Amino acid sequence: MELKCLSRTSLQRVGAEGLLVVLSSVPFMLAAMIGDTATPPLWRMVAAGVASFSCLAAAFLLLRRPQLGRIFGGLALAGSTIVIIPFFESNPITVLLGAVMIIGAGYALTEFRPCMDGLQRSSPVDRCLQRARWAAMTMSGLVLAVVIVDRGSHALVNTALIVSVGVTIILVMHWIWRQFSPVPAIALIMVSLVAICAVIFSFMNGYFRMTAFIVGILAILVLPDSTQAQEWEDHWWKVLLSHPARVLLTTFLALCSLGTFLLLLPGAATHVQGIAFVDAAFTSVSAVCVTGLTVLDTPHDFTLFGQGLILLLIQLGGLGIMSIATVGMHALGRRMSLHHERLLTSMTDTDHQDLVVSLVTILRFTLIAEAMGTLTLAGLFHISGDNWGQAVWRGLFTAISAFCNAGFALQSDNLIPYQGNPFILHVVALLIIFGGLAPATSLLVPRWLAGRPVAVGVRLVLMTTTILLISGALFFLAFEWHGALSGMTVSDKIHNAWFQSVTLRTAGFNSVDIAGVMNPSCLIMICLMFIGGSPGGTAGGVKTTTIALLVLTFWASVTGRSEVIVQNRRIPPGTINRAITIVISGALVWIVMVLMLEMTQQIPARELLFEVTSALGTVGLSLGATNHLDGIGKIIVMLAMFAGRIGPMTLFMLLSEERSVSVTRCLDAKISLT
Questions:
Q1: Gap between the Cα atoms of 588 and 163, Å rounded
Q2: Rounded Cα gap, residues 450 and 383, in angstroms
Q3: Cα 56 from Cα 76, distance rounded (Å)
Q4: How far apart, in whole angstroms, are the C-alpha atoms of residue 641 and residue 245?
Q5: Cβ proximity of 538 and 436 under 8 Å
């Protein structure tokens, strides 16, 4: 019987050798790309040489002498850091990204644990295969990174890159020779030699990077997987995909990254030279996190293709990738694994038996609502003066953006041009409201309005939402009657106040100039943005039920009751504790983000407070601070949007593990609070 450590994980650790060998040329690439001079200074080349040699030594020793291998790996990381320090000084926007990458590499190095017994029992052919596969994947990613970062095509960069390509092909040929009998092996090695010739020819004619990337992708596709048996427990990605919080973070991070690279495609932007990487990343994160904050003008800076990409990111971000994938598997007749079902039930707070039914209901309700919104808005936009093609596209974009509470619009002034059209405002408002509610809750609205009994959770959501909508509209009317609403008729003031009350909690559309609102209005808006929408919907914030539970807990405390009772139902202490945790975690993240922006941006505090709350609540409204953010400011706001979408409490759950419930009873402690 094979030992458990003889697994895919053990074999994939051999791939670290191929990865490190390919990366050994990276220090010289960094030395060449950093600085204004064509020839790097001697100290930088020496540091690059030390880092490169240490990387090669780590590749050779990490599995054979793990402790010594980690030391050389640390030297390689330190040498590479020294090489890029001048780049950090001249490009502060990269400090955060570089720090994350260095910390991640250091963590991976310290946590690397080779299973020597399993490796010794594994096949030499499989070990060769893993080296070749990881080398091919690393080389492809390296070429792609160089294409994005190095626009000058330095000779030293290309030389270092061709070394990485050559090493990859040699490792592939080594596996071919060990895997096949002499005649097929010779034939395949000849094919590899042809690939080498193609790389050299392209190097001489200016097509080297494209050819190298194609060779790497072909190698990944052609190389087979390991023949060793595997189980879910042995996968290297178990750490990411065995925990609901980490699954949520991983899927959204992957979608944001994919969206960034898609928006960098030549046909996505109207500018010939394309858009900056940080602007593409900001737009992608804002779309995936259904926020709506923008540093570019969506209708003017993006082509129809680019606008379509943004709309796709909004839809995927609003619904959730795993929800769509689960319904797709169900439609194809495929069953989910028990692990997949457990993750989804934990993430969606749904019973195991109702999981697929609930997800199908979500998708069906979403598509029907968006279709009805598209048809209605298309007709209204056409009546307002758009031709049918433009009206349909604007209707589709606005309907999906509104239902997903994203706030993106195909008008540079958002919905300000339609502040005198109550029909457009109220259709968009309805889409925002129903998108901010869970589909199951939305379907129970008629029952609740008819006075029939509904579940306690549904009643709390609907009552809190109604109170917030009405009070928000009244506050906005009172404070902005002679301010942002001045110059309108009485009816238009009422329509726009209602619309702003609906949109400022979650969506980010605006029909009036938000930058000129009074300070009391600004304070009310910050509070409503922090509260956000309802659980199960596409909105952000700490959620309406959380605030409702805290208010009920407060009222129970001041009236001398020890328990919170709603409709003859007792609210468990665990639920109340979770509500408190959500608010505190949200407040902590909010404070950190505000301090980070205050220390790095020369923007008034009022605008920064509003900006952070809008980003963390995935709202998308701004007092004008977004357009004045520098690179670091954009990254901080991106972090706030991302934290708001996955939930601030999720950030604190990332490092937690599943624990058994303790049955130990402890004595009560008496603590004075007054």
A1: 48
A2: 35
A3: 9
A4: 16
A5: yes
User: How far apart are the C-alpha atoms of 378 and 524, rounded to whole Å?
Assistant: 33
For residue 324, the Cα-to-chain-centroid distance in whole angstroms is 16
Q: Which residue is listed with tokens 């072909």? A: 218
Q: Is the pTM of this model over 0.70?
A: no
Rounded Cα distance, 387 and 379, in Å = 10
What's 316's DSSP letter?
Answer: H
Distance, CA of 618 to CA of 504 (rounded, Å)? 10
Using a 10 angstrom Cβ sphere, with 0-12 exposed, 13-18 middle and 19 or more buried, the burial of residue 372 is middle
Q: Residue 420 has which token pair?
A: 């005198």
**Per-position DSSP letters for 297-308, written without gaps between them:** -HHHHB-HHHHH
pLDDT tens digit string along 379-433?
A: 999 998 889 999 999 999 999 999 988 889 988 888 889 998 999 999 999 999 9
For tokens 């029939």, the residue is 452
Q: Any idea which residue has 């194809």 for tokens?
A: 332
Measure CA 194 to chain center.
41
Given a contact cutoff of 8 angstroms between Cβ atoms, the answer to whether 587 and 605 are in contact is no
pLDDT tens, residue by residue, 234-293: 444 444 455 566 667 777 887 888 888 888 888 888 887 778 888 998 999 999 988 889
- The three-state DSSP-derived secondary structure of 470-499 is HHHHHHHHHHHCCCCCCCCCHHHHHHHHHH
Of 227, 225, 226, 228, nearest to 4 by C-alpha is 228
Q: Do 544 and 617 touch, CB atoms closer than 8 A?
A: no
Q: Cα-flanking dihedrals φ and ψ of residue 302, to 5°?
A: -120, 140
7 touches 234 (CB < 8 A): yes
Q: State the residue for tokens 């195991």.
A: 352
Task: Return the DSSP state at 423.
Answer: H
DSSP assigned state of 6 = S
Beta-bridge partner residues of 566: 569
Rounded distance between C-alpha atoms, residue 392 and residue 378, angstroms: 5
Rounded-to-integer distance, Cα 391 and Cα 480, Å = 31
CA separation for the pair 499, 509 (Å, rounded): 9
For CA atoms 642, 644, 646, 649, the dihedral sign is positive
Contact criterion met (CB below 8 Å) for 293 and 286: yes
- The DSSP line for 329-387 is HHHTTPPPPHHHHHHHHHHHT--STTHHHHHHHHHHHHHHHHHHHHHHHHHHHHHTT--
Query: Smallest Cα–Cα separation from 241: which of 231, 254, 250?
Result: 250
Quick one: CA torsion of 134, 221, 207, 258, rounded to 10 degrees?
-80
